[in-house]
């Protein structure tokens, strides 16, 4: 089966790259084990959509398989094929459903399990989800409040009745998705659970799945039979506002390519942000083309009028603020507080990692860890540590 070859590889070697990205596969495996424990008695699957949240579907899938994960979710049939080429035995669900009769053939060939989200999906799979005389397994997504994908509860109910008669579908999983799981007190959580359970009773042969990472921490009846963690596997905080129990998986660092001395009254970067004191500035070879968002630009930049401070880096034991606008390939850090001659050309500043928690970096850029990870880009030198890959 031809597999489109646009999965992430290790990127350029470090001497050709402006930044390096380290992915700790043993931390990933530890996170999977913690989420499995928290999911019990449900099983934990793993969500590997968008190239495993930007970290590389191949090494991530292999490490999770080695950690005991056997069931996976991706977003698109393309991703299902990529994952199948890495894990011939895995159970692979594809969340975004069926696009067409042609894609149904790709699903059958690669033994992918479509999540049927709409009447169109149902019709295609009822007609084309067969091998010889056997209807191939599928999942049914019922919408319980997100209004994104999924059948209405009413349609799911009539489907259960129809399918009991016709047997046209073999739904092995009934799933829904929580809109506010990261806000445990939100009333929609319980409403969605109740709505889901009412439909779930009509599919006694199917397993059930409701929880993403945050949902796992709601616990109890939310857990169902199978959970679907994504971001927490990769080290993101599953629930905002409380301590993050996950291990750090991703470290992103940028190379210092110049150190300059800027006088008070001079300006830096595009738009000429004023510098108020004599400053030492580290010019670093990572920018928004590497997913270091422009919205993380330094304090005093006009686009930051809503939030006073920009992103920070970490170098030689110190937090250092971004100075001026983040540009496509370069970012400036104010390293004055380190004193003169504290850094050398070629040293690295940590952008994301153990000292710069990903959720904090995301917040400084007005976004979420998910978006930071999936925008990391192709120019980092990638190193996978702590695994067998
Ligand atoms: C992305 C996604 C998940 C994983 O969510 P996280 O918040 O990353 O844990 C689970 N289920 C569905 C339907 C998703 O789209």
Structural features, described:
There is one protein chain. By secondary structure, the chain is α/β, with parallel strands linked by helices. The chain is built from eleven helices and 21 strands. It has helices at 25-39, 49-53, 57-66, 77-86, 101-110, 119-128, 153-166, 187-200, 213-216, 358-364, 369-374, and strands at 19-24, 43-44, 46-47, 71-74, 91-94, 112-116, 130-131, 134-135, 137-141, 170-175, 207-209, 226-227, 250-262, 267-268, 273-274, 279-284, 312-315, 318-323, 331-334, 348-352, 381-385. Strands 1, 13, 16, 17, 18, 19, 20 and 21 form an eight-stranded mixed sheet that branches. A seven-stranded parallel sheet has the order 3-4-5-6-9-10-11. A two-stranded parallel ribbon has the order 2-12. Strand 10, helix 8 and strand 11 (207-209) form a beta-alpha-beta unit. Helix 1 packs across helix 3 (57-66) and helix 4 (77-86) runs parallel beside helix 5. The model is unreliable at 1-7 (pLDDT under 50). The structure holds pyridoxal-5'-phosphate. Residues 47, 49, 95, 177, 212-214, 228-232 line the site of pyridoxal-5'-phosphate.
């Amino acid at each position: 089966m031809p597999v489109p070859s646009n999965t992430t590889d290790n990127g350029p070697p470090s001497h050709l790259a402006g930044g390096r990205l380290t992915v700790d596969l043993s931390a990933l495996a530890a996170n999977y084990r913690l989420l499995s424990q928290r999911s019990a008695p449900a099983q934990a699957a793993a969500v590997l959509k968008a190239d495993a949240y930007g970290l590389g579907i191949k090494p991530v899938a292999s490490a999770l398989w080695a950690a005991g994960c056997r069931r996976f979710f991706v977003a698109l049939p393309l991703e299902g094929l990529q994952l199948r080429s890495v894990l011939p035995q895995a159970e692979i669900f594809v969340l975004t459903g069926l696009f067409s009769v042609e894609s149904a053939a790709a699903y059958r060939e690669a033994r992918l399990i479509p999540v049927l989200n709409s009447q169109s999906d149902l019709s295609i799979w009822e007609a084309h989800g067969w091998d010889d005389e056997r209807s191939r397994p599928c999942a049914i997504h019922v919408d319980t409040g997100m209004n994104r994908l999924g059948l209405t509860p009413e349609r799911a109910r009539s489907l259960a009745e129809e399918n009991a008669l016709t047997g046209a579908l073999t739904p092995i999983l009934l799933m829904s998705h929580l809109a506010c799981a990261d806000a445990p007190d939100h009333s929609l959580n319980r409403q969605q659970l109740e709505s889901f359970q009412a439909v779930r009773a009509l599919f006694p042969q199917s397993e059930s799945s409701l929880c993403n990472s945050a949902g796992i921490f709601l616990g109890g009846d939310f857990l169902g039979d199978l959970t679907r963690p994504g971001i927490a596997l990769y080290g993101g905080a599953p629930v905002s506002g409380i301590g993050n129990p996950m291990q750090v998986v991703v470290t992103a660092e940028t190379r210092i390519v110049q150190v300059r001395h800027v006088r008070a009254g001079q300006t830096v970067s595009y738009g000429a942000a004023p510098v108020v004191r004599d400053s030492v500035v580290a010019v670093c070879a990572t920018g928004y083309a590497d997913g270091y968002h422009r919205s993380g630009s330094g304090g005093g930049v006009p686009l930051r009028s809503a939030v006073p401070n920009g992103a920070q880096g970490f170098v030689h034991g110190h937090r250092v603020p971004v100075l001026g606008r983040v540009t496509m390939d370069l970012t400036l850090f104010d390293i004055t507080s380190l004193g003169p001659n504290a850094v050398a050309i070629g040293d690295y500043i940590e952008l994301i990692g153990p000292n710069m928690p990903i959720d904090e970096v995301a917040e400084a850029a007005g976004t979420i860890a998910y978006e930071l990870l999936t925008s990391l880009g192709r120019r980092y030198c990638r190193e996978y540590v702590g695994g067998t890959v």
